[in-house]
Amino acid sequence: MTAAIWVAGAFCIVTSLVHFVSIALVTLRGRFAGKNSPSAAGPLPVVSILRPVCGIENAIERTLRSGFELDYPEYELVFCVASETDPVIPLVRRLMAEYSGVPARILIGDDRISINPKLNNLVKGWQAAEHDWVVMADSNVLMPPDYLTRMLDRWSPSTGLVCSPPLGSEPDGAFAEFECAFLNTFQARWQLAADAVGNGFAQGKTMFWRRENLDRNGGIEALAADPAEDAAATKVIRGSGLDVRLVYLPFPQPLGHRSLRAVWHRQLRWARLRRVTFPIFFCMEFFVGGMFPILSAAFLSANDVIPIWSAAALAVFWYGMEALMAKGLDWHCSWKSPLAWILRDVSLPLLWINAVSGNGFEWRGNQMNVKEDSLMVVEAD
């Protein structure tokens, strides 16, 4: 029993410190947002923005429209669509006509270089982009007017790629709140904290490239080396001796209504991709979240090592700090959020177990498998 008490105590202390330090790092770095505008450093580069689109999503007109309203001197928009019958095409054409002063094109076709449908959709855009600076941005990213300058703000001579994790906003319903709990104070926080200590890694929602950094390492086809293009991008850039950096504050993704099935399947897909692309980090995910530290504190209380109220106090402090971070950074936070955070942490071990128990998943109607040899054949879960 003595050994169990020591292990529980050490685990509780270490995980709590990591949790609170990560929150402090992300909150502090958020205060630097907008402090170093690149406009004073000289002429801004012309940028090509590639937007893969597929179907009618929540707030799709607003997110696509935001790309036409950037406060930036010169850029082009390249919309990539896999199928000529996609229902999003009329919307894109209408926006292009409405904002005729913004150079924009729509490219249709599907180049199957990987099991990743988004990457296949982007190939033609990368090849057609006219400028040396290129953004790959998902269609559900809501671009603020300073979208491009905020990414340039993070560029330095040692930078090879600038990214932004998704930040859930405008959730409609309990399950959208559940998705916010994963995206914001959990996944975005850990990614931003990793970047703050010099270990940034790519996130596919927004990736800002200098073309030469990818072309000299095999071009866009090099991103097919992993099932997820952002994992491959991280390896390409780090292999070049350059750094992946993240924006100070992420760009929002309006969530709208979500079903539990959709949220769970999306998280499971990402978990299975992390399992095969970054297995060491994935192994540690079983113990992240507040459930195990709080249970450890309860165990210590039951054995009269710490006061009986300590586990409850840790729980309040644990999720209270998440709330302070979300409020301080103007991220979504409502009275439902703490309940969603608790549900998230309880579900994390179950998500991890499901991630290691299969290889297949569905992505935008495409049956996929995280095994390298499974472009067309998917293993049944």
Walk me through what this model shows:
Helix content is 47%, strand content 16%. The chain is of the alpha/beta class. It folds into 2 domains: 10-26 and 277-369, no CATH class; 36-270, Spore Coat Polysaccharide Biosynthesis Protein SpsA, Chain A (Alpha-Beta Complex), CATH 3.90.550. It has a 7-stranded mixed beta sheet with strand order 3-2-1-4-7-5-8, sandwiched between helices. A two-stranded parallel sheet has the order 6-9. It has a two-stranded antiparallel sheet with strand order 10-11. The protein is elongated. The protein starts with a helix and ends in a 12-residue tail after the last strand. The model is unreliable at 372-381 (pLDDT under 50).
Structural descriptors:
381 residues; alpha/beta; Spore Coat Polysaccharide Biosynthesis Protein SpsA, Chain A; 2 domains; seven-stranded mixed sheet; two-stranded parallel sheet; 13 helices; 16% strand; disordered C terminus; transmembrane; Ceramide glucosyltransferase; transmembrane helix
